[in-house]
Amino acid sequence: MNEKRNLFEKSLNLFTLNRVDRDIYSWNGKNVGWGRVFGGQVMAQTLIAAYKTIDVDHYAHSFHSYFLRPGDMDKPIIFTVDRIRNGKSFTTRNVKALQDGEAIFSCSISFQKDEEGLEHEISIPDVPAPEELKDELEIREILLKKLNIDSKDMPMFLRQREIEMRPVEIQDYFEPKRMPPYKNTWIKPKGTIPDDQVIQQAFLLYISDMGLLAAANNSVGVNFLTKNLQNASLDHAIWFHKKLDLNDWFLYSIDSPITRNARGFSRGSIFSKSGELVASCAQEGLIRLWPESKKK
């Protein structure tokens, strides 16, 4: 339990940036990722940097970004904020994340004050409740035992996360096959997120990079264990529709309309347990399956 708690607190610590100068911030702590900095970390940190330049009661409603270069796990990250517009209703910021003077990530973020207006929203998908489902790690452990594989040989397969994930659709990672182009997962933090919309939005942005590309992978019968597969997020967008409270189960419902030209496109809807649509996102990712002869 302490390990899970420490991992969760480590994730929240990612949202604490150092001020270098006006509109310039840095992250000098330990980066999160495997081989390269996790995209969710950089996205969340750019949002935090942008919020530090906003003095009015405006909150992020849309975030559009591009992953430009792999982030180096062993180097600090500098964030530069460009104050594009300060308006009465909307405020806009552009943010770049830099390593060694080169941009590894860029985004444009729009902020808006709360307003009353016309409303409609789609309904939450009809899926089993989280209490009826197994934890993803438990499913993976059962799969390894079934195949008589020592868990010590696959540390990434059973790595702990700062969230508990309970998938609706079960897949066999060792014998992948084409699956329907959708993926539903119940998610809950392994800790308490502060009642602060800036932190709540940053946390959702952080974890929203988990699973989008996987839905596109599943649709063409590959996954992160597939040999010669090259996967990488190319861009990411998220829209915040309502005030967030992520301290209970929420459903991440993803569909992948198309995969072609070595790119997979996915869309995600985030619903509260009570059925409210609180956020939406979209992403294109690189899905490049190299021939054996071109193995790198």
TrEMBL record:
UniProt-listed Pfam families: 4HBT_3 (PF13622), Acyl_CoA_thio (PF02551)
Any one GO biological process: fatty acid catabolic process
Protein keywords: Hydrolase, Lipid metabolism
Class of this enzyme: hydrolase
EC code(s) of this entry: 3.1.2.20
Residues covered by the Acyl-CoA thioesterase 2 C-terminal domain: 157-286
Residue ranges constituting the Acyl-CoA thioesterase-like N-terminal HotDog domain according to the UniProt record: 34-112
Keyword Oxidoreductase: no
Any GO molecular function: fatty acyl-CoA hydrolase activity
Catalyzed reaction equations: a fatty acyl-CoA + H2O = a fatty acid + CoA + H(+)
GO cellular component, one term: cytosol
Family, per entry: Belongs to the C/M/P thioester hydrolase family.
Subunit structure: Homotetramer.
Protein name, as recorded: Acyl-CoA thioesterase 2
Gene source species: SAR86 cluster bacterium
